[in-house]
Amino acid sequence: MAFTENFLEQIRSRTHISEIVSRRVRLIRKGRGEHSGLCPFHDEKTPSFTVNDIKGFYHCFGCGAHGSIFDFVMKTDGLEFPEAVEILATEAGLQIPKKDENLHEKENRLKRERVLNLLKAAMEWFRGQMNDHDGSLALRYIKDRGILPATAEHFSIGFAPSARNQLKKAMTTIGFSAKELILVGLIIQPEDGRESYDRFRNRLIFPITDKRGRPVGFGGRALSESNAKYLNSPETKFFHKGSLLYNLNGVREEIKNLGSLIVVEGYTDVISLWQAGIKNAVAPLGTALTDAQMMELWRLTSEPVLSLDGDSAGTRAAIRVAENALPLLKPNQSLRFSFLPSGEDPDSIIQKKGIEAFHKYFENSLPLSEVLWRSAFVGDFSTPERQAGLRQTLYSLVDRMKDKSVQKYYQRYFNVKLEEAFGNDFRQDGKKSLFKGRNVSRISPRHKLSLSDGLGYGGGGLARNRERVLVATILNHPEILVDLIETAASVQFESEDLDRLYSRIIDIVGKGEPLDREILKEQLKKSGEESLVVQLTGKNSGLVEHFIKAEATQEEAVIGWLDTLSMHMRGAIKADCLAAVKRLADEGSDTAFEQLKALKEIEAESLSRLEDNDTYRK
């Protein structure tokens, strides 16, 4: 629903943002209305996260997270905007304004409320059947599984009797129609016109709730071998299996305290962990994780951990999830994987080895990048052809990633893994490093080239000119990427057209294309970049630096390229410093000096890494 700006302002005026943030972050008061602490959205050791009660916003100078009190609740609790407003309004003692509805909207709302009431009534009925004489089999099952009565009560576990229409009779008796029961999937109407009957029979029932804790469907575990082991509610207007997670509502408060989230395979895994004191687990509904479910997980935490069996089926499941996640990856949005011993599940680990043993598997989880590498690095790679095939497999995974910055860092990661596997001489074209074992910063000063023409600090035009120099040098001297591929892959440009061209160059080189300028230009021509290539390398390019030109030596090209990159980095960081100071001054902050100092330290660290690149270190 839409909220008026006046109503939102009432919430802001009654609630200090620091009060809400302090539930997740330990804040230290810094000045009038200002607080600081460790950012909850990325890992850091030095506080860069600020909260301003006067301005009503939070900002992280480390990862760039920024927003209002509503944004913070949405991001940390995984809520939509209306839900965040309702929670904050309730806490502020405000009544949610009633929406002006037309007749159609009112009918839909009442219909939805009636359906939710029906599902809640069914859940209570299933729970009541546990204590009926027919429920003894269900009670024996949960006892054998070690599920305590208090745990069964917490998860509202119920029982569906074996009779064909007991639920149907119970629900119609209290005023619900058979049509409504069919609508929510509680009873089945045969196509041949025979009498409808209960969907769930002789099953242990697990209610499945939405993000607000309301039952929207059910999962049933067979109590006899004659039936399918698990049965879920069918897809309805209210139950979408691929977008729901079991216990999603139950983990929100735990994640606020722990910051982590475990994804297990089924209902009983979640329940066993909860009973053992691990209350931050969810499960998909009998299927592999869908895109919608992964997005729900990322609303709650940046790196949920999937706990899977260590057998071949668990490995296949991990690979399937890992590959499906590739197009969705973003900075600070990934997955981790915890593999249990073959044949074991969370419950059996806890029963046999204790809760600490399960914690150890969780703490030793593998990042997504390592799982992708291990899944590809299986078999014999003793020949150049097989090594080339491995590289091709890895870069096909990178191609599936949509975020350009994630792509570049994965490309760099795989390059490092390939060199570790096959030795430091493993290069895209099989050549040895021209500057292997040498530090270019110590080359004779007579080779140092003047970069004063158009390569100064700051300014949009100057920044673009530096970017043109960097790309033009690579176009005329692609062979220098033999040594610079890792550094080159991490560079990003502000100019959209140059960044697009540069990314295509890195992709071509990374896939093993020969490092020859004519072949490279031909490849770029096929991808529609001929015009921009001509602008950068033609006689009218306007670029006068000698090291760019085709007749320059490879050594001159490397030195010129690195010096230009150094200036480019300095210019970008200086611009960030100036913008930060201006922003902080506009906001009335008294921490400008500290933030500027932090940015200068980042500058020094970045440039140090560039100068000490492993390729050139003695």
Describe the protein in words.
The protein is an alpha+beta fold and 618 residues long. It folds into four domains: 5-91, Alpha-Beta Complex (DNA Primase, Chain A), CATH 3.90.580; 106-239, Alpha-Beta Complex (DNA primase DNAg catalytic core, N-terminal domain), CATH 3.90.980; 249-374, Dna Topoisomerase Vi A Subunit, Chain: A, domain 2 (3-Layer(aba) Sandwich); 429-616, no CATH class. It has 25 helices and 16 strands. A five-stranded antiparallel beta sheet has the order 1-2-3-4-5. A five-stranded mixed beta sheet has the order 13-12-14-15-16, with helices on both faces. Helix 13 (312-325) crosses helix 16 (368-376), helix 14 crosses helix 15 and helix 19 (460-476) packs antiparallel against helix 24 (554-586). The longest helix is centred in the last third of the chain and has 33 residues, at 554-586. The radius of gyration is 30 Å and the shape is globular. The N and C termini lie far apart (64 Å). Residues 425-460 and 612-618 have low confidence and may be disordered.
Features:
five-stranded mixed sheet, DNA primase DNAg catalytic core, N-terminal domain, 618 residues, alpha+beta, Dna Topoisomerase Vi A Subunit, Chain: A, domain 2, 4 domains, 25 helices
Number of domains: 4
Shape: globular
Detail the poorly predicted runs.
425-460, 612-618
Q: Can you list the strand order of the major beta sheet? A: 1-2-3-4-5
What does the main sheet amount to? 5 strands, antiparallel
Percentage of residues in DSSP E strands: 5-15%
Structural class based on helices, strands and sheet pairing? alpha+beta
How many β-strand stretches? 16
| Number of alpha- plus pi-helical segments | 25
Mean pLDDT: 81
> Which percent range fits the helix content?
40-55%
The termini sit apart by 64 Å
Specify Rg, calculated over alpha carbons.
30 Å
